[in-house]
Amino acid sequence: MFSTFLGELRGYLGKAFILATWVPVLIFASASVAIYLAGNRSLGQAWQSWLNLTIGGQGVLSVEFLVIVTFLAFIFYSVQIPLAQLFEGYWDHIPGLSIVGAKKREYYRRYLKKQEARIQQIADEVPADGRPTKEQIVRVNRLQYEIRSFPSLQEEQHIMATHLGNIYKAAELYPLRRYGADAVPIWPRLRSILPNDFAEHMVDAKMTTDFLLLFALLSVLFSLMALIYLLVQGAAVFLVLLCLLGLPVGVLAYRCAVVAAQDYADLIKVAFDLYRRSLLKALDLDIPSTLAEEQQLWRQLSAFLLHGREPKGSFHFTKPEA
Fold it and tell me: How far is CA 255 from CA 212, 216, 221, 260, in A?
C-alpha cells in the first residue's frame, strides 16, 4: 500500500517534490509520533493496539497519516523559496539576523582578503626565472579552489552572510564576469533549451541540496521541540540525549548541502559555457565572432530583457532558411 501511494504521488507531483520535501517531512512526522508516544510512556500500548487492528483498520490509519504528511509537505514546498533565502543569508530585513548577517559578511571579506594575500605572497616567492615550483603551484591551486565559491573582492558588495549564499552568488555573477550576461533574465531562457540529460543532472543536484537543507532544518526543529516536550514529561535522560542528536545531524546535513550546492553551482557555470550560444541561435541572433562582441551583445540583451532598454545598435538576426 505504501509503495502504491508513493508511486501515485510521485507520478502526480514529480520526484523533486517527493524526494526533496515529502520524504524529509515523512521522517520528521514519524519521529515526532514516536517521541510523543515514548514521552507519555504509551509507545508499547500503541504498538499493541496497532497489532490488534484488522488489515482494513491499519490501512485507514496509514492513509490518514500519509495524507497529513502530504499536507505538511505541501506547506513546506510552498515556502521553499523563503526557506532557501534564509539559508542563503538574505537577512537584511529580519530583526536580529540582520546584525549577524553584517558580521558574517565582514568575516567573509576578511577571509577573502587573507586568501588573496596568501596567493600574492606565493607569487612574490616565484624565482627570478619565472617558473614556480610544483609546491607553489599546488598551494596556489588549493587557495584558488577554496575561494572559487565566493564572489571576488572586486564584487565584495555581493558577499553573502552564509557559505551557501556565497556559492550561489558566485555562480550568478560568473556569466556576467565572463560574458557580460546577467544571469537573472538570461538563466530562465537558457534553462529551457538545455539538453534533457544535462537538465536532469542539474535537477538531481538541486534536489539533493533541497533535501539536505530541509532535513537540516527539520532535524534542528525536532530536537528543540522534543527537548521541551520530554523535559515537561519527565522522560528518561537517555531519550532526551537521543533526541538531541538531531542538532549535530542538522549541522552535518547543512554541510553536506553546501557540498551539493557547489556541484549545482558548477553545473550552472558549465551551462553558460556550453549552451549560451545555443540560446543566441534560439533567439535567431547572429553569433559574434569575437569575445568582445559577444560580451557587448549579452550586455545589451540582458538590459533589453530585464529593463526593456533599446540596444545602442540593432540586434542582427539570422536570415530564416527558405
Answer: 9, 9, 17, 9
The grid cell for 249 is 545531524
Range of the domain at 52: 1-78
pLDDT digits (tens, 9 = 90+) for 130-171: 787 788 788 888 888 888 888 887 888 899 999 999 999 999
Q: What nine digits make up the cell of 207?
A: 534536489
DSSP characters for 167-205? HHHHHHHHHHHHHS--HHHHHHHHHTTS-HHHHHHHHHH
DSSP string over 84-115: HHHHHT--TTSTTHHHHHHHHHHHHHHHHHHH
Q: Looking at the domain assignment, is residue 188 inside a domain?
A: no
Q: How does 162-195 read in b/e, with b if 16+ C-beta sit within 10 Å? A: bbbbbbbbbbbbbbbebbbbbbeebbeebeeebe
In a domain, residue 34? The reply is yes
Question: What would the pLDDT profile of 209-225 be if each residue is shown by its tens digit?
Answer: 999 999 999 999 999 99
Q: Are 119 and 137 in contact (CB under 8 A)?
A: no
312 φψ region: left (φ > 0), alpha (ψ -120 to 50), beta (else): alpha
Residue 269 lies in a domain: no
136: amino acid identity, one letter: Q
Q: What is the pTM of this model?
A: 0.84
